[in-house]
Design a protein that fits this description.
Elements lengths: L5 E7 L12 E6 L5 H9 L17 E6 L3 E5 L10 H17 L3 E9 L6 H12 L4 E6 L9 H12 L7 E3 L8 H18 L1
Parallel strand pairs: 2-4, 2-5, 5-6, 6-7
Antiparallel strand pairs: 1-3, 3-4
């Protein structure tokens, strides 16, 4: 995928703040510090468009990035961070549930998981939520460069088993350092958009 244009558009917390141009949306969910911002930057081939932070819980809204005037990448707040207050966590939950339940342009959800670790309880809840709402899902296992190639399969199998992943859900091993998995993930994204268009 050749990126000719990529820009941050808006942070939204309510449906009336979402963009109204009806471009397809690809959303990203994952625990704090799983590497969502680095993943977005690598997908868009931009160094600092999505702000990466060593401070978990930094993203507190739905951040919209427009790519090639063709699609939006929508970054959710990271979940599972202890220092975020209970009230904030509830607000994040409501904001994300509202988006998932009502957002028609959403074509694919990327569930981002660190390949080095088994899915957390929050990861499992998010996956179950996505299945409950019938949202097409792709599991993206980040930080592949931190695990020896010989152990990739073992780690991916553990993640799929722990999530109870459906066989039809694609799994992509991704490295923001090397760019490994970037083209594969773009192909899955474009296929999800094309499939949706065919059914319309």
């Amino acid at each position: 995928m050749k990126i000719t244009q990529a820009e941050f558009m808006i942070s939204a917390v309510r449906p009336d703040q979402y963009p109204v141009d009806a471009l397809p949306e690809i959303a990203l969910a994952g625990r704090s510090n799983v590497g969502k911002s680095s993943l977005i930057n690598k997908l868009m081939m931009r160094k600092n468009l999505a702000r990466t932070s060593s401070q978990p819980g930094k993203t507190q809204q739905l951040n919209y990035y427009r790519v090639n005037d063709m699609i939006y990448l929508v970054d959710f707040p990271g979940y599972g961070y202890a220092k975020v207050s209970k009230k904030q966590r509830e607000q994040f939950g409501q904001m994300i549930e509202t988006y998932l339940r009502t957002r028609e342009p959403l074509k694919l959800q990327l569930l981002v998981i660190d390949v080095r670790h088994a899915p957390s309880t929050d990861d499992k809840l998010m996956y179950d939520w996505l299945k409950h709402f019938g949202i097409p899902t792709c599991i993206v296992c980040t930080k592949a460069d931190k695990v020896p190639r010989s152990k990739w399969e073992k780690h991916i199998k553990l993640i799929k088993t722990e999530l109870g992943a459906e066989p039809s859900d694609p799994v992509v091993l991704f490295s923001s350092e090397t760019g490994g998995g970037r083209e594969e993930l773009w192909n899955i994204i474009m296929e999800a958009i094309a499939q949706e268009e065919e059914t319309v």
